[in-house]
Amino acid sequence: NIAYVSKKKGEYQEALERYKTSGRLFYEAGYGAKYATAFDDIADTYFKMGQYRDAISYYKDAYEIKISLDDKSGAGFSTSNIGQAYWNLGNYDSAILFHRQAIALNKEVNDVVDMAYSYEKIAALWKESGSVDSAVSYYSIAQDLYISNNDTTDKLAKIKESIGTVYYNVKNYDKAISYYETSKKMYENIGNDIGIANGLYNLALCYYEIKSYEQARDYLLQAKAKYQYMEDKEQTMYVAIYLSLIQWNVNNDYKAAEKLMAEALLLAKESNSLTNQGYTWRQLGWLKKALGKFENAKNYFDSAYNAYQQSGDYAGLGYTNIDIGL
User: Fold this and answer.
1) CA–CA separation, 308 vs 298, rounded Å?
2) Residues 207-250: pLDDT tens digits?
3) For residues 317 and 128, what is the distance between their CA atoms, to the nearest angstrom?
4) Which residues contact 59 (CB under 8 A, 6 or more apart)?
5) Beta-carbon contacts of residue 74 (< 8 Å; ≥ 6 apart)
Protein backbone atom coordinates (compact mmCIF):
# COMPACT_ATOMS: atom_id res chain seq x y z
CA ASN A 1 0.00 0.00 0.00
CA ILE A 2 2.83 2.42 0.80
CA ALA A 3 4.47 1.59 -2.53
CA TYR A 4 1.19 2.22 -4.36
CA VAL A 5 0.76 5.60 -2.66
CA SER A 6 4.36 6.54 -3.54
CA LYS A 7 3.74 5.61 -7.17
CA LYS A 8 0.52 7.63 -7.35
CA LYS A 9 2.38 10.61 -5.88
CA GLY A 10 5.05 10.26 -8.58
CA GLU A 11 7.75 9.20 -6.10
CA TYR A 12 8.84 6.37 -8.35
CA GLN A 13 12.21 5.51 -6.84
CA GLU A 14 10.70 4.98 -3.41
CA ALA A 15 7.90 2.91 -4.96
CA LEU A 16 10.46 0.71 -6.76
CA GLU A 17 12.40 0.03 -3.58
CA ARG A 18 9.26 -0.94 -1.66
CA TYR A 19 7.89 -3.16 -4.45
CA LYS A 20 11.24 -4.96 -4.73
CA THR A 21 11.34 -5.50 -0.97
CA SER A 22 7.78 -6.87 -1.05
CA GLY A 23 8.72 -9.19 -3.91
CA ARG A 24 11.62 -10.68 -1.96
CA LEU A 25 9.39 -11.20 1.09
CA PHE A 26 6.64 -12.88 -0.95
CA TYR A 27 9.23 -15.17 -2.57
CA GLU A 28 10.66 -16.19 0.80
CA ALA A 29 7.14 -16.82 2.12
CA GLY A 30 6.27 -18.97 -0.91
CA TYR A 31 3.44 -16.70 -2.07
CA GLY A 32 3.81 -17.26 -5.81
CA ALA A 33 0.84 -15.15 -6.96
CA LYS A 34 1.86 -12.17 -4.80
CA TYR A 35 5.45 -12.58 -6.01
CA ALA A 36 4.26 -12.32 -9.63
CA THR A 37 2.14 -9.27 -8.83
CA ALA A 38 5.18 -7.55 -7.32
CA PHE A 39 6.97 -7.96 -10.67
CA ASP A 40 3.97 -6.42 -12.44
CA ASP A 41 4.05 -3.49 -10.01
CA ILE A 42 7.79 -2.96 -10.52
CA ALA A 43 7.29 -3.10 -14.27
CA ASP A 44 4.42 -0.60 -14.11
CA THR A 45 6.58 1.80 -12.11
CA TYR A 46 9.40 1.59 -14.66
CA PHE A 47 6.77 2.15 -17.36
CA LYS A 48 5.63 5.35 -15.68
CA MET A 49 9.26 6.46 -15.44
CA GLY A 50 9.62 6.00 -19.20
CA GLN A 51 12.11 3.14 -18.78
CA TYR A 52 10.28 0.80 -21.10
CA ARG A 53 13.00 -1.83 -21.57
CA ASP A 54 13.20 -2.36 -17.80
CA ALA A 55 9.40 -2.55 -17.74
CA ILE A 56 9.39 -5.27 -20.42
CA SER A 57 11.96 -7.29 -18.50
CA TYR A 58 9.87 -7.30 -15.31
CA TYR A 59 6.58 -7.92 -17.14
CA LYS A 60 8.20 -10.96 -18.78
CA ASP A 61 9.32 -12.21 -15.37
CA ALA A 62 5.75 -11.79 -14.09
CA TYR A 63 4.46 -13.69 -17.14
CA GLU A 64 6.82 -16.63 -16.52
CA ILE A 65 5.83 -16.90 -12.86
CA LYS A 66 2.11 -16.82 -13.72
CA ILE A 67 2.50 -19.48 -16.42
CA SER A 68 4.28 -21.71 -13.87
CA LEU A 69 1.24 -21.20 -11.60
CA ASP A 70 -1.14 -21.99 -14.49
CA ASP A 71 -2.56 -18.48 -14.16
CA LYS A 72 -3.35 -17.81 -17.83
CA SER A 73 -5.55 -14.85 -17.03
CA GLY A 74 -2.77 -13.14 -15.10
CA ALA A 75 -0.27 -14.08 -17.79
CA GLY A 76 -2.52 -12.39 -20.33
CA PHE A 77 -2.48 -9.20 -18.27
CA SER A 78 1.34 -9.12 -18.18
CA THR A 79 1.55 -9.96 -21.88
CA SER A 80 -0.75 -7.08 -22.79
CA ASN A 81 1.44 -4.68 -20.84
CA ILE A 82 4.53 -5.96 -22.66
CA GLY A 83 2.74 -4.99 -25.85
CA GLN A 84 2.12 -1.49 -24.56
CA ALA A 85 5.78 -1.05 -23.61
CA TYR A 86 6.89 -2.16 -27.08
CA TRP A 87 4.49 0.36 -28.57
CA ASN A 88 6.09 3.16 -26.56
CA LEU A 89 9.48 2.05 -27.88
CA GLY A 90 8.17 2.35 -31.43
CA ASN A 91 8.15 -1.41 -32.05
CA TYR A 92 4.58 -1.58 -33.34
CA ASP A 93 4.68 -5.12 -34.79
CA SER A 94 5.76 -6.56 -31.44
CA ALA A 95 3.13 -4.47 -29.67
CA ILE A 96 0.28 -5.90 -31.74
CA LEU A 97 1.71 -9.43 -31.46
CA PHE A 98 1.81 -9.38 -27.65
CA HIS A 99 -1.67 -7.88 -27.35
CA ARG A 100 -3.10 -10.63 -29.55
CA GLN A 101 -1.27 -13.25 -27.48
CA ALA A 102 -2.89 -11.74 -24.40
CA ILE A 103 -6.37 -12.03 -25.94
CA ALA A 104 -5.71 -15.68 -26.84
CA LEU A 105 -4.69 -16.47 -23.25
CA ASN A 106 -7.78 -14.71 -21.88
CA LYS A 107 -10.09 -16.55 -24.27
CA GLU A 108 -8.73 -19.92 -23.07
CA VAL A 109 -10.07 -19.23 -19.59
CA ASN A 110 -13.04 -17.09 -20.70
CA ASP A 111 -11.72 -14.09 -18.78
CA VAL A 112 -14.05 -11.41 -20.15
CA VAL A 113 -12.56 -8.56 -18.11
CA ASP A 114 -8.96 -9.14 -19.20
CA MET A 115 -10.07 -9.74 -22.78
CA ALA A 116 -11.71 -6.33 -22.67
CA TYR A 117 -8.51 -4.88 -21.19
CA SER A 118 -6.47 -6.24 -24.11
CA TYR A 119 -8.96 -4.92 -26.67
CA GLU A 120 -8.65 -1.54 -24.94
CA LYS A 121 -4.89 -1.70 -25.34
CA ILE A 122 -5.15 -2.51 -29.05
CA ALA A 123 -7.61 0.36 -29.38
CA ALA A 124 -5.03 2.61 -27.71
CA LEU A 125 -2.44 1.60 -30.31
CA TRP A 126 -4.80 2.56 -33.13
CA LYS A 127 -5.61 5.76 -31.23
CA GLU A 128 -1.94 6.75 -31.15
CA SER A 129 -1.55 6.00 -34.86
CA GLY A 130 -4.54 8.23 -35.71
CA SER A 131 -6.73 5.40 -37.04
CA VAL A 132 -10.02 6.73 -35.72
CA ASP A 133 -12.39 4.03 -37.01
CA SER A 134 -10.19 1.15 -35.83
CA ALA A 135 -9.66 2.73 -32.42
CA VAL A 136 -13.36 3.40 -31.84
CA SER A 137 -14.21 -0.11 -33.08
CA TYR A 138 -11.86 -1.82 -30.60
CA TYR A 139 -12.99 0.44 -27.75
CA SER A 140 -16.58 -0.54 -28.59
CA ILE A 141 -15.69 -4.24 -28.39
CA ALA A 142 -14.12 -3.65 -24.98
CA GLN A 143 -17.16 -1.67 -23.86
CA ASP A 144 -19.54 -4.45 -24.92
CA LEU A 145 -17.46 -7.03 -23.04
CA TYR A 146 -17.55 -4.95 -19.85
CA ILE A 147 -21.31 -4.47 -20.21
CA SER A 148 -21.81 -8.23 -20.75
CA ASN A 149 -19.97 -8.75 -17.47
CA ASN A 150 -22.29 -6.26 -15.70
CA ASP A 151 -19.29 -4.07 -14.92
CA THR A 152 -20.31 -1.01 -12.91
CA THR A 153 -16.81 0.29 -12.13
CA ASP A 154 -14.96 3.14 -13.80
CA LYS A 155 -14.00 1.06 -16.85
CA LEU A 156 -16.88 2.32 -18.98
CA ALA A 157 -16.08 5.91 -18.05
CA LYS A 158 -12.46 5.29 -19.01
CA ILE A 159 -13.53 4.03 -22.46
CA LYS A 160 -15.58 7.19 -23.04
CA GLU A 161 -12.55 9.22 -21.99
CA SER A 162 -10.31 7.26 -24.37
CA ILE A 163 -12.68 7.76 -27.31
CA GLY A 164 -12.60 11.45 -26.47
CA THR A 165 -8.82 11.32 -26.82
CA VAL A 166 -9.16 9.56 -30.20
CA TYR A 167 -11.08 12.58 -31.48
CA TYR A 168 -8.78 15.05 -29.69
CA ASN A 169 -5.77 13.56 -31.47
CA VAL A 170 -7.35 14.18 -34.89
CA LYS A 171 -8.41 17.72 -33.87
CA ASN A 172 -12.14 16.96 -33.76
CA TYR A 173 -12.49 18.98 -30.58
CA ASP A 174 -16.30 19.16 -30.55
CA LYS A 175 -16.58 15.37 -30.39
CA ALA A 176 -13.71 15.18 -27.92
CA ILE A 177 -15.45 17.65 -25.59
CA SER A 178 -18.69 15.66 -25.82
CA TYR A 179 -17.00 12.38 -24.83
CA TYR A 180 -14.87 14.03 -22.12
CA GLU A 181 -17.94 15.63 -20.57
CA THR A 182 -19.81 12.31 -20.61
CA SER A 183 -16.85 10.56 -19.04
CA LYS A 184 -16.45 13.21 -16.32
CA LYS A 185 -20.12 12.90 -15.37
CA MET A 186 -19.75 9.11 -15.12
CA TYR A 187 -16.71 9.56 -12.86
CA GLU A 188 -18.67 12.04 -10.74
CA ASN A 189 -21.52 9.54 -10.36
CA ILE A 190 -19.17 6.91 -8.92
CA GLY A 191 -17.04 9.37 -6.93
CA ASN A 192 -13.79 8.73 -8.80
CA ASP A 193 -11.65 11.79 -7.98
CA ILE A 194 -8.81 10.86 -10.32
CA GLY A 195 -11.26 10.45 -13.21
CA ILE A 196 -12.87 13.80 -12.40
CA ALA A 197 -9.47 15.53 -12.30
CA ASN A 198 -8.46 13.95 -15.61
CA GLY A 199 -11.79 15.02 -17.10
CA LEU A 200 -11.16 18.62 -16.10
CA TYR A 201 -7.64 18.45 -17.54
CA ASN A 202 -8.81 16.92 -20.83
CA LEU A 203 -11.50 19.55 -21.25
CA ALA A 204 -8.89 22.23 -20.58
CA LEU A 205 -6.72 20.90 -23.40
CA CYS A 206 -9.66 21.01 -25.83
CA TYR A 207 -10.54 24.58 -24.94
CA TYR A 208 -6.86 25.53 -25.20
CA GLU A 209 -6.71 24.14 -28.73
CA ILE A 210 -9.83 26.03 -29.85
CA LYS A 211 -8.33 29.19 -28.29
CA SER A 212 -10.94 29.52 -25.54
CA TYR A 213 -8.15 30.35 -23.12
CA GLU A 214 -10.23 31.58 -20.18
CA GLN A 215 -12.21 28.34 -20.13
CA ALA A 216 -9.00 26.38 -20.51
CA ARG A 217 -7.39 28.22 -17.59
CA ASP A 218 -10.47 27.71 -15.42
CA TYR A 219 -10.48 23.95 -16.04
CA LEU A 220 -6.70 23.77 -15.51
CA LEU A 221 -6.94 25.48 -12.12
CA GLN A 222 -9.74 23.13 -11.03
CA ALA A 223 -7.68 20.14 -12.18
CA LYS A 224 -4.55 21.45 -10.45
CA ALA A 225 -6.37 21.75 -7.11
CA LYS A 226 -7.52 18.13 -7.34
CA TYR A 227 -4.13 16.79 -8.45
CA GLN A 228 -2.37 18.65 -5.65
CA TYR A 229 -4.86 17.31 -3.11
CA MET A 230 -4.10 13.78 -4.39
CA GLU A 231 -0.35 14.61 -4.45
CA ASP A 232 -0.17 13.59 -8.11
CA LYS A 233 3.07 15.29 -9.11
CA GLU A 234 3.10 14.09 -12.71
CA GLN A 235 -0.30 15.50 -13.63
CA THR A 236 0.34 18.68 -11.63
CA MET A 237 3.45 19.05 -13.78
CA TYR A 238 1.41 18.89 -17.00
CA VAL A 239 -1.08 21.42 -15.66
CA ALA A 240 1.77 23.79 -14.78
CA ILE A 241 3.13 23.48 -18.32
CA TYR A 242 -0.20 24.43 -19.90
CA LEU A 243 -0.74 27.31 -17.48
CA SER A 244 2.75 28.47 -18.49
CA LEU A 245 1.86 28.21 -22.18
CA ILE A 246 -1.20 30.42 -21.60
CA GLN A 247 0.95 33.03 -19.84
CA TRP A 248 3.49 32.82 -22.64
CA ASN A 249 1.37 32.62 -25.80
CA VAL A 250 -1.71 34.53 -24.71
CA ASN A 251 -0.66 37.04 -22.06
CA ASN A 252 2.94 37.54 -23.27
CA ASP A 253 3.99 37.31 -19.63
CA TYR A 254 7.31 35.49 -20.02
CA LYS A 255 8.32 35.94 -16.39
CA ALA A 256 5.16 34.21 -15.13
CA ALA A 257 5.54 31.55 -17.84
CA GLU A 258 9.12 30.80 -16.82
CA LYS A 259 8.14 30.56 -13.15
CA LEU A 260 5.41 28.02 -13.94
CA MET A 261 7.76 26.05 -16.21
CA ALA A 262 10.36 25.94 -13.41
CA GLU A 263 7.62 24.57 -11.13
CA ALA A 264 6.89 21.90 -13.73
CA LEU A 265 10.56 20.93 -13.98
CA LEU A 266 10.84 20.57 -10.21
CA LEU A 267 7.80 18.26 -10.20
CA ALA A 268 9.30 16.24 -13.08
CA LYS A 269 12.54 15.79 -11.16
CA GLU A 270 10.70 14.80 -7.98
CA SER A 271 8.83 12.13 -9.94
CA ASN A 272 12.13 10.57 -11.12
CA SER A 273 10.62 10.27 -14.60
CA LEU A 274 13.21 10.90 -17.30
CA THR A 275 10.47 11.18 -19.93
CA ASN A 276 8.72 13.92 -17.93
CA GLN A 277 12.01 15.72 -17.42
CA GLY A 278 12.77 15.54 -21.13
CA TYR A 279 9.37 16.96 -22.02
CA THR A 280 9.74 19.85 -19.56
CA TRP A 281 13.30 20.65 -20.68
CA ARG A 282 11.96 20.91 -24.25
CA GLN A 283 9.28 23.38 -23.20
CA LEU A 284 11.87 25.50 -21.39
CA GLY A 285 14.03 25.39 -24.52
CA TRP A 286 11.19 26.74 -26.64
CA LEU A 287 10.52 29.48 -24.09
CA LYS A 288 14.17 30.60 -24.14
CA LYS A 289 14.20 30.42 -27.96
CA ALA A 290 11.16 32.73 -28.10
CA LEU A 291 13.06 35.19 -25.90
CA GLY A 292 16.03 35.08 -28.28
CA LYS A 293 18.26 33.40 -25.69
CA PHE A 294 19.52 30.76 -28.11
CA GLU A 295 22.46 29.48 -26.06
CA ASN A 296 20.18 28.87 -23.06
CA ALA A 297 17.64 27.24 -25.39
CA LYS A 298 20.25 24.85 -26.76
CA ASN A 299 21.35 23.91 -23.23
CA TYR A 300 17.75 23.04 -22.35
CA PHE A 301 17.28 21.03 -25.56
CA ASP A 302 20.54 19.18 -24.81
CA SER A 303 19.24 18.34 -21.33
CA ALA A 304 16.01 17.05 -22.90
CA TYR A 305 17.99 14.93 -25.35
CA ASN A 306 20.06 13.38 -22.54
CA ALA A 307 16.93 12.56 -20.52
CA TYR A 308 15.22 10.90 -23.50
CA GLN A 309 18.41 9.02 -24.34
CA GLN A 310 18.67 7.59 -20.82
CA SER A 311 15.01 6.51 -20.87
CA GLY A 312 15.16 5.00 -24.37
CA ASP A 313 12.36 7.29 -25.57
CA TYR A 314 13.10 7.38 -29.31
CA ALA A 315 10.14 9.58 -30.19
CA GLY A 316 11.36 12.16 -27.68
CA LEU A 317 14.86 11.95 -29.16
CA GLY A 318 13.45 12.56 -32.62
CA TYR A 319 11.48 15.62 -31.58
CA THR A 320 14.43 17.05 -29.65
CA ASN A 321 16.77 16.58 -32.60
CA ILE A 322 14.36 18.72 -34.62
CA ASP A 323 14.26 21.30 -31.83
CA ILE A 324 18.06 21.56 -31.79
CA GLY A 325 18.13 21.87 -35.58
CA LEU A 326 15.66 24.74 -35.47
Assistant:
1) 15
2) 999 999 999 999 999 999 999 999 999 999 999 999 999 998 88
3) 18
4) 39, 40, 43, 78, 79, 81, 82, 85
5) 33, 36, 62, 66
